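Why should sequence recovery work at all? Because a backbone constrains its sequence more than one might expect. Tight turns favour small or flexible residues, buried strands favour hydrophobic ones, and helices have their own preferences. The token representation captures these environments compactly. In the example below, the structure is given first.
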């Protein structure tokens, strides 16, 4: 095995997505020499957004993907709503990246293996967790207690929101703390009227504009990184040359690069962390070259695992030594357990009479949000925790001819006018942490790089599914209160994984006997090993989680640098 154990690096960061990008930025800005290892190919901001600004007619199959290609190469990724011919180069080829699930428990593992990871394809919805979320496990006894509280993370939310640029409105809800937002995108006339009706008919429930990682009023710092104001093109998942939405390529990696402290190596698959039994610390990582399959090692004084929830846990489980036969930092035996994803599958819609003389002004980079109210202002004894909704009102154009029924001159004449206003929404529910939801390494099957594949066994539990009924009932009640007509509600629980908020499996906690990481995302067992992606999550709350990964990463990075300076690790 080739060795590059130069120990020149103060920190090795594994993965360049939302959390790895932030770790690279925070650590380099604090003076550390950082090696960033990314398993996928290089993606150059702007130059490699190859479908940006293109029309359907400029793609070989008018934006569609031949069925045989989907079935052979994208049989999992195809279920992601953002997967299309415009974006498929930012999703993994499922044939090349196998994993296993029980046949009756699918877990769509939606991934992007390239520089920037899923920071290129995410939907950018950015919400803080609240005090209630950090206390929940302790109060109702599910999972272990978070070793931090909202007040520990609040300054770090401020820090990452200011850097990333989150647009939103200040509403003063304790269950959804505000931040230093950039100006919100406007709500349209129907959303504003629905907001008034819902908030007066159902006190405690709110319809607000979605908080999203888009620049509406770029700061000097953001402009100095080459980022500009969002133009509402709403083609974000193809990549944005304006750098208007937050991604590793538009924001954190340029910030890290300009310090002169960052070395990035792509096509470098980290297979395991090297454990030095004498020093009782991580001394580096083993890497397989994605193209040549050659193996080599890199040394570093600290290791940050940010490869995304399941990839990080796969690396940890595969880091076996005499001291840690079941995976590094796994003396508790909890590594791989307590996998969570948000619960979805409730959709609701209806039509709105009025405002027929108005139309939407262009596109918009976000929708609306209905923050959690169940077991906040409205108790429901059928289940613990709660859910929020995301949705938007819009007025269909002539393009509704694709699904509207009709034929002939009258139909054509009707299509000259916009359709009626419609509102659609979907729920996102909290999933309780449960030990039985777990991942482990296969003992016989490996991938083409010789790395044991991951087995995933995860299902929603009783509490989660009870929540789904209430989510559907509440959706109807909200739309009725808003005065909508032709209301429809559907309920088809999504399999865990499909909401793409997979988290847990190397949870934080007070006690080394029941958790993997301490309050600084530092492995209880290996003090110079940090895990700051979704693997660290102790509970899922119901808010989109990536902003929390950023805040935890920034906090852990600052703590690690202090510990290095003090010689504590
Ligand atoms: C379509 C879509 C919409 C989404 N919408 C939202 C949203 O609105 N709000 C929200 O909060 N979240 C959203 N998410 C989820 C969000 O993208 C993830 O939570 C976030 O990207 C996780 O960050 P991460 O750094 O942990 O992982 P990633 O961003 O996935 O990055 C991980 C990186 O690690 C690399 N890697 C993996 N394994 C290895 C290895 N062995 N060695 C080296 N490198 C490795 C990968 O190639 C990748 O680049 C969405 C995701 C998708 C796909």
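From this structural description, the recovered sequence reads:
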């Amino acid at each position: 095995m080739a060795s590059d154990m130069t120990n020149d690096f103060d920190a090795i960061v594994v993965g360049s997505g939302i959390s790895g990008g932030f770790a690279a930025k925070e650590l380099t800005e604090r003076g550390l020499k950082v090696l960033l290892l990314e398993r996928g190919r290089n993606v150059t901001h702007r130059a490699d957004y190859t479908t940006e600004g293109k029309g359907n007619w400029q793609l070989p199959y008018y934006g569609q993907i031949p069925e045989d290609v989907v079935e052979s190469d994208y049989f999992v990724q195809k279920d992601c709503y953002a997967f299309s011919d415009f974006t498929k180069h930012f999703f993994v080829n499922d044939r090349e990246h196998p994993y296993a699930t029980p046949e009756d428990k699918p877990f769509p593992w939606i991934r992007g293996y390239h520089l920037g990871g899923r920071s290129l394809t995410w939907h950018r919805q950015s919400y803080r967790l609240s005090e209630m979320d950090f206390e929940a496990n302790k109060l109702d006894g599910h999972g272990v207690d978070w070793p931090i509280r909202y007040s520990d993370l609040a300054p770090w939310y401020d820090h990452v929101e200011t850097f990333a640029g989150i647009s939103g409105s200040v509403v003063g809800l304790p269950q959804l703390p505000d931040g230093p937002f950039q100006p919100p995108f406007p709500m349209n006339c129907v959303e504003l009227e629905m907001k008034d009706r819902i908030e007066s008919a159902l006190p405690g429930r709110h319809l607000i504009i979605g908080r999203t990682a888009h620049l509406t009023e770029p700061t000097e710092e953001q402009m100095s990184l080459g980022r500009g104001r969002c133009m509402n093109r709403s083609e974000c998942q193809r990549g944005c040359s304006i750098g208007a939405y937050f991604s590793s390529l538009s924001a954190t990696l340029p910030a890290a690069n300009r310090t002169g402290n960052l070395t990035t190596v792509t096509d470098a698959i980290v297979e395991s962390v090297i454990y030095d039994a004498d020093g009782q610390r991580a001394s580096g990582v083993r890497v397989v070259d994605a193209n040549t399959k050659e193996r080599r090692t890199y040394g570093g004084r600290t290791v940050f695992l940010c490869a995304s929830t399941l990839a990080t846990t796969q690396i940890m489980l595969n880091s076996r030594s005499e001291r840690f036969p079941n995976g590094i930092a796994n003396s508790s035996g909890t590594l791989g357990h307590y996998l969570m994803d948000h619960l979805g599958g409730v959709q609701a819609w209806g039509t709105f009479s009025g405002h027929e003389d108005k139309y939407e002004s262009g596109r918009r980079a976000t929708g609306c949000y209905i923050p959690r109210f169940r077991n906040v202002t409205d108790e429901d004894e059928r289940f613990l925790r709660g859910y929020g909704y995301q949705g938007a009102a819009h007025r269909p154009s002539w393009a509704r001819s694709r699904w509207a029924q009709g034929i002939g001159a009258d139909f054509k004449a009707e299509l000259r006018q916009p359709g009626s206003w419609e509102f659609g929404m979907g729920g996102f529910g909290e999933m309780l942490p449960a030990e039985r939801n777990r991942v482990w390494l296969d003992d016989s099957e490996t991938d083409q790089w010789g790395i044991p594949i991951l087995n995933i066994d995860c299902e929603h539990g009783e509490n989660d599914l009870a929540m789904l009924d209430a989510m559907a009932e509440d959706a109807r009640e909200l739309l009725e209160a808003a005065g909508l007509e032709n209301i429809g509600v559907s309920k088809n629980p999504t399999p865990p994984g499909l909401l793409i908020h997979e988290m847990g499996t190397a949870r934080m906690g007070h006690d080394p006997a029941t958790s993997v990481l301490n309050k600084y995302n530092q492995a209880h067992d290996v003090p110079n090993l940090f895990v700051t992606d979704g693997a660290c999550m102790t509970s899922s709350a119901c808010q989109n989680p990536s902003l929390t990964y950023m805040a935890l990463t920034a906090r852990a990075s600052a703590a690690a640098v202090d510990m290095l300076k003090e010689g504590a690790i």
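A few observations help interpret the result. Residues 14-20, 37-40, 80, 82, 110, 112-113, 117-119, 121-125, 269-270, 306-308, 311, 315, 500-501, 533-534, 544-546, 549 surround flavin-adenine dinucleotide (CB under 6 Å).
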